[in-house]
Amino acid sequence: MRLEKLFSPRDYNAHISISMKHRYVYFPVAKVATTSLMKALQIYEVGNLPQGLVTQHPRAEYSSWIKPYQLTPDMLDDIFSAPDYFKFTFVRNPYVRLVSAWKDKINGNSKEKSLILKLMGMPPQEIEVPISFGQFVKAIADQPLHKMDRHWRPQALCCMALWVQHDFIGKMENFDADIAHVSERIGFDISATFNNGTQVHRTGASETWRKEYTPELKGIVARLYAEDFARFGYDTEL
C-alpha cells in the first residue's frame, strides 16, 4: 500500500516536511519536541520574513515547507532516495512518549480527548471527565496502529521508518548532541531558538513516567509499540 493511502491526507502531509531550499526532509513525530523543532526550522525557512507569520503547526496549504500534496508520488520518491537530501527525525522511549501524550492531550482536556471518550463508549463532548493512564492505554489497545491519533501513533509509522531510509534518527534522550548534529548538517543553529517560548507542550513525563505503569500496562504498551522498541533500540524493561 502506498503511504498516501495508509494515512488521512491531513496526517500524511503532517508527517513530511520538505525543504528544497536547504535540501532536507524532516519527519515530525508528535510528542518528541515537535513544536520546538518545527518552530525553529520554519524560522530557517522564512528567512527575513516577519517571524510573526511563523506558527508551530501550520496547515499544509500554509506551510513554509513543500508538502506531499504538491508533488507526484514519483517526485516524492525521488526526494526520499536523493543522496543530497538530509532525511532526519527524532524519536523517544515509547513508554515515556505515551505518558507525555496522556498528560498533554488527555489530562489537558485537548480535543484529542474526545477520540478516547468515543473508544470508551462515552459521550465525546464530556471533555471534563477524568481518564486515568490505564483507561487511556486500554482504550487504544485494540485500535489499528495507523488509525491512531498521531500523538500516540507508533513512531515508526509517524516518521515513515518502514518505507524511508533516514540519514539520521535523533533521540530525546541525547537531545542536545543530536540537535547539534542536525544543526551542523543543515547549516542552522536550531537550539538558538529554543529560549523563545517554543516549548509549550512540555509535560515533565521524563521525570514521572515510571509511576504510571503496572505490569499489565507495561505488557500492553510493549506489544503496541513493539516496532518502536526494536527499531529504535529501546528496552522494553522498565
Helix and strand layout, with pairings?
Elements: H1 3-6, H2 9-14, E1 17-19, E2 24-27, H3 34-46, H4 73-81, E3 86-91, H5 94-106, H6 113-119, H7 133-140, H8 155-158, E4 168-171, H9 175-186, H10 205-208, H11 215-224, H12 226-232
Parallel strand pairs: 2-3, 3-4
Antiparallel strand pairs: 1-2
Structural features:
238 residues, alpha/beta, Rossmann fold, four-stranded mixed sheet, 4 strands, 41% helix, 7% strand
The name CATH uses for the topology is Rossmann fold
Biggest beta sheet attributes? 4 strands, mixed
Q: Point out poorly predicted stretches.
A: none
* Structural domain tally: 1
Strand content: 5-15%
Supply Rg.
18 Å
CATH architecture: 3-Layer(aba) Sandwich
Distance between the termini: 35 Å
Number of helical regions: 12
The helix/strand series, from N terminus to C terminus, equals HHEEHHEHHHHEHHHH
Give the CATH class.
Alpha Beta
Q: What's the pLDDT, averaged over the residues? A: 91
Strand order of the largest sheet: 1-2-3-4
Structural class of the helices, strands and pairings? alpha/beta
Please tally the β strands and state the result: 4
Q: Give helix % range.
A: 40-55%
Overall 3D shape: globular
Task: Explain what you see.
- This protein has 238 residues and is of the alpha/beta class.
- The protein has one domain: 3-Layer(aba) Sandwich (Rossmann fold), CATH 3.40.50.
- It is built from 12 helices and 4 strands.
- The chain has helices spanning 3-6, 9-14, 34-46, 73-81, 94-106, 113-119, 133-140, 155-158, 175-186, 205-208, 215-224, 226-232; strands at 17-19, 24-27, 86-91, 168-171.
- The mean pLDDT is 91.
